[in-house]
């Protein structure tokens, strides 16, 4: 493998020749067009600037004339069918559609929307050639519903179907996807996922509620998903970085109009396999109201930007300008900046709900965690594939947690009863950013020097190279709960473990 990821396998796709700006976007103001031209001029050197990671170049998609995707949906009534099957989807504005693995032939899959405490009923059907599960990323739920193939349930065989019912106890923005550890990277990269929105009993009043799923796809020259999953390079280095970034599986930027003075809730998900995506908010007044689904003390992000690891969600409230005709932009910090979403004020001023409180009601998470009584466990992350490692490489043992690759693990990280406070020290002894995902639980990020904590909860946590990050949580229901790399390519390479709640 190459020491410089920019030289590696998935070459940039689009030369960005003559971007065919649609009239819709042209009339929406010159800034986007100007930015795109600027972006095009710099695409050859485009690099992720976030999290200290290097990346492959991203060819920035040309804008399409396609209508905006379905950004909102009605609540689910009755059982929602989720049939996994191959489907063609126009990720790119021209050329052949890309063959994906989708739920219900859409990408992202159907937006599931239920009220907190109401039952969600899903009929999962497997129409692909691999076994699948349905994992509810970030939700606190009974362990038998966590959907980790081989750990919490038998995966669903090709051709089989299974009904899944539960009443979510947590309001917020969540990600559903297949989760068979050895296959999760491929199945997620091919599109087998969607968003679950669990509505609060009394949500903050807004004029629009938009779901924004970000993904970067590694496409081959023919526009199809680049083959070659589970390679030593993808598992052992930064992971499978794409060369085609989409918003709700459409080429960006998306555009949306809202009344002057209106308030928009954005529900962001980074569905990429491996790429942390940093966003900047230009000419938009932004407050973060939830992270990883759970309400946070509302805050304005530092430098008006926010980084999302793969699997992270963030709910934002955007307050629009009081005048008509003002455009604000959500921009991905790739190269000189890639506009993802334009929000423009249009029409008569909104009878604004702006005076109302924007903090969502809580989900009953504990006000305090008795850290003095906590079980303290070290989670030492090791491994990686140094440049120029000669073959053969044992890809299932590239990464280890406390010295053991997942394939060799026979015992849980720890066992504890329900309701037990736990502090995990996540010790990153690798040379790369690690992103760990805690199943079925949500954790407080502790301060470095004491047991103070950040005013939010997370289930997908960044651990920079060489650093230690401590998290605290209280054990939930009985069962085996996975802690796994949120950079999905590393899952089959050993970066996973589990703990047992008795
Ligand atoms: Cu998950």
UniProtKB/TrEMBL annotation:
Disordered: annotated segments: 47-79
PROSITE patterns per UniProt: MULTICOPPER_OXIDASE1 (PS00079), TAT (PS51318)
Keyword Oxidoreductase: yes
Annotated keywords: Metal-binding, Oxidoreductase
Membrane-crossing segments per the record: none
MF annotations from Gene Ontology: copper ion binding; oxidoreductase activity
A single GO cellular-component term on record: outer membrane-bounded periplasmic space
Record-annotated Plastocyanin-like domain positions: 93-201, 211-320, 400-501
Pfam short name (any one): Cu-oxidase
InterPro entries cross-referenced by the UniProt entry: Cu-oxidase-like_N, Cu-oxidase_2nd, Cu-oxidase_C, Cu-oxidase_fam, Cu_oxidase_CS, Cupredoxin, TAT_signal
UniProt name for this protein: FtsP/CotA-like multicopper oxidase with cupredoxin domain
Phylogenetic lineage: Bacteria, Pseudomonadati, Pseudomonadota, Alphaproteobacteria, Hyphomicrobiales
